[in-house]
Amino acid sequence: MFEDSILKSKSKSGRSMFVSFGLQALVVVVAILIPLIYTEALPKGSLTTLLVAPPPPPPPPPPPAAVPVKVIKVVSEIQNNQLRMPTKIPQKIQMVKEDIAPPEAPDTGVVGGVGGGAVGGVIGGIISSTPVATVKAAAPQRVRVSSGVAAGQLISKTTPNYPPLARQARIQGSVLLSAIIGKDGTIQNLKVLSGHPMLTQSALDAVKQWRYKPYLLNGDPVEVETQVQVNFTLAGG
Question: Tens digits of per-residue pLDDT, 75-134?
Fold first, then answer.
């Protein structure tokens, strides 16, 4: 009897333990699921606290202050190539010693020769005794002079013939020619610069016969480039 009652009590206590354990587990599960299902029941303050972004990190510390640099001003004692008075007297004065340069040996000519020779040796004596020829600058072959200067050199002048057709047409005026006068004073080349076509040929034929004195430059005759003007004028205007 006693053993039967002990076994019955053990079986009842085991059942009750399992039942209490199941109830506790159910309560825990319900307590976890209720906040997940009914979110409105949660306190708003806690949700707001959870959703607020974390504060930004603190700013970095300011950089260290720059240490002022002391500028040392060097004052030169020489201004405008002149030594000026120092602003302060130095504590120590250093004496500068310079080596005395040895005297230069006189040049007495050939090394090992007899003393008293020519300065510069044999070669120097030869060069100094040789006369130096003066190089004469080459004179130009041709110079350009004005018409007035060329007219002063004229020694023979042929008067041009007035063309009959130009005379009948009452054509008059000036013919300007470019002339090259040779070293002997003769006309070497003529070109027409301006003038009436009916007068130019007569001017060319006459000027070709003109003669000039040779133009001398530094005593030598040279060619001359100049201009010659020939005037054609009818009697009575």
Answer: 555 666 666 666 666 666 666 666 666 666 555 555 555 555 545 555 555 555 666 666
Q: In terms of DSSP bridges, do strands 142-144 and 215-217 run parallel, antiparallel, or are they unpaired? A: unpaired
Q: Which of 180, 176, 233 is nearest to 200 (CA)?
A: 176
Could you please report the per-residue DSSP string of 158-214?
A: PPPPPPHHHHHTT--EEEEEEEEE-TTSBEEEEEEEE--HHHHHHHHHHHTT-EEPP
Compute the distance between CA of residue 41 and CA of residue 48 in angstroms, rounded to an integer. Answer: 14
Provide the 10 A C-beta neighbour count for residue 120: 13
pTM: 0.43
* φ/ψ (deg, to 5) at 100: -80, 125
Structure tokens at 126: 């030869």
Report the alpha-carbon distance of residue 226 to residue 207 in Å, rounded: 13
